[in-house]
Amino acid sequence: MIGLTAKFCTTTSATDSDRAPSASNRFIATREALRPPHGARSMEHAPLEDHHDYIDAMLSDIAKRGMVALREAWRTLPGADQAAAKERLETVYKPLALAAAATGRVELLRDCDGVYGVGFVGTFVSHKLEPPRIITRLDKLKDPPCGSSSCAPFLQGIPKFFKNSMEHELVDALLTAMLARAGIDRDNPGWWRSEDAHVRAANQRQYHGLKAMALRITNSKIREALTAAHPEALAMARRFPPKARYAIYCAAARSPRLLQLCATFPLLARMIVESPELRCDALAMVEAGRRLRDVADYMRVPMVLRRVTPGATTAAVRLLRECEGVEARSLLLHSCLPIGTSAQKRWQLALGVASRIGGPYVDWVARHAIDLGVTVEAVLAQVQDLGDFARASYAADCVAKMPSYVYEAITHRPARERRYWDARERPNLHGVRSFSPDMSVATMRELSGQWHEAVALANPRSTAPLPRPWRGADRIGDLKIVPLTTAAEIAAEGRAMHHCVATFTGRVRIGEIYIYGARDIDGTRVATIEVALAGAEGSVGVFVTQMRGPCNSILPKSMQELIRRWVRQKDKWKLPTRSDEYREPDDIPF
What we know:
Blueprint: H1 2-12, H2 23-33, H3 52-65, H4 67-76, H5 82-101, E1 105-111, E2 114-121, E3 133-135, H6 166-181, H7 197-226, H8 231-237, H9 245-254, H10 256-264, H11 266-273, H12 279-287, H13 292-299, H14 313-322, H15 330-336, H16 341-357, H17 360-368, H18 376-400, H19 404-411, H20 441-458, E4 474-476, E5 479-483, H21 487-497, H22 505-509, E6 513-519, E7 525-534, E8 541-548, H23 557-567
Antiparallel strand pairs: 1-2, 2-3, 4-5, 5-6, 6-7, 7-8
Helix pairs in contact: 2-5, 3-4, 4-5, 5-6, 6-7, 8-9, 9-10, 10-11, 14-16, 16-17, 16-18, 18-20, 20-21
């Protein structure tokens, strides 16, 4: 970075007599040099006079879109020889496109009243129609966009890998311009390759140095532009998830009443901003000072969700849009909605998964979702696994009370109309007690584990032998890792660890994966590991596809590193050759 900075500083401090032509001057000079002579009649030597306007239009398109447009334009030139076109592309038009791209820069947007935003200025070389810009000053704001845009401003300086935002678009555009100034064609992904390792490393350092410089320059400009923003609306918008911030900021900066609503009922404010059909009427109600309950009823948002924090509104919006009957469960929501952004996210996402199963299971999840785990991933995995047991209970209870002639009529209908039972046998819980919404979490986990194990062992192929282990039992650090060599062992692992590994027996049998169990010094089960072949028939080795603790919990990083070290011991693996001998549909219904 020091060398790169010194290089750029030396270039910019040269005298006028020693300084190379600017990028814009090079662009104009190259364009003039390309103008065809009068009377030229050969496309291979010079464009036809009739094509003069076409070439000018092509050059203008190149200035906007870069090398991609250039290559597309050459393909459409009538009568152009491809070899001659490629040579002309590399020798003449490529410098033109680089010179056009080199004119771009990120600058503060100003008018007579001062700074009002930040944007990309100069020749914008991208497939997008408009150069990226962020408007922050109140009098320049347009109507807020509907919905959470995938490329909306996040209203903050961004770290290195913060993509899918307008700030990242600014960094990317500036990086393209800086690479063009260095004579690098970004559309050529192999520009940095070289047989010389030192040259290749120097090219990579140059690229990443310019990337870091573009990020630093853009963030400094963004911070300056945010000084012109509405301070209260900006502070409120930053409490919401990043993709919803700019829409909230635009609306709250223009309407003091909506800014108040963001503080008192964040979910309702976001639903108003992101609803294109209802936004105008809802905003009119807010501006007219209508009762909060009237506005919430118009937007069909239960008043009990007023407690949802701004950071948890994404999960709440999904819950309202995907789940039916949320309004009817207002009392349940009021009594079960947890406090805190993280807990509310887990709870709302779990309720959304449970609503796809329906019935009393939704109420059970609403009461116990927070007790199922501390991460979103672990909670959702358990809600799905326990939901399979609840769904099977629904089917078994329904069929048990159904007259035989009704059951026969249903099972002879097309398969897509028989949702939870098989025509070959009446559904049953294999002796496991049926689900009840009054069950505790421990009871539900125990019964679900018993049912998953029973389903796996009831599979006609469960007694068939599994392939030999890819590796025997071994110890690494404080862990002992053992292969699960039978369907019964895999089912017992799933029951003890409260997850659905028992349903993976079919994939083990065909040689696609293998399941291992990790035990601590006392022999307690601490993790279940799934490994798969890497490359054609394991030519590269194996890799870990899943490693989970009890109830699908995430393992500590120290344990994850131990397991990865165990996998990297390639000399201890004896990998099989894949066979299609057992490739049959899995009978397990989930």
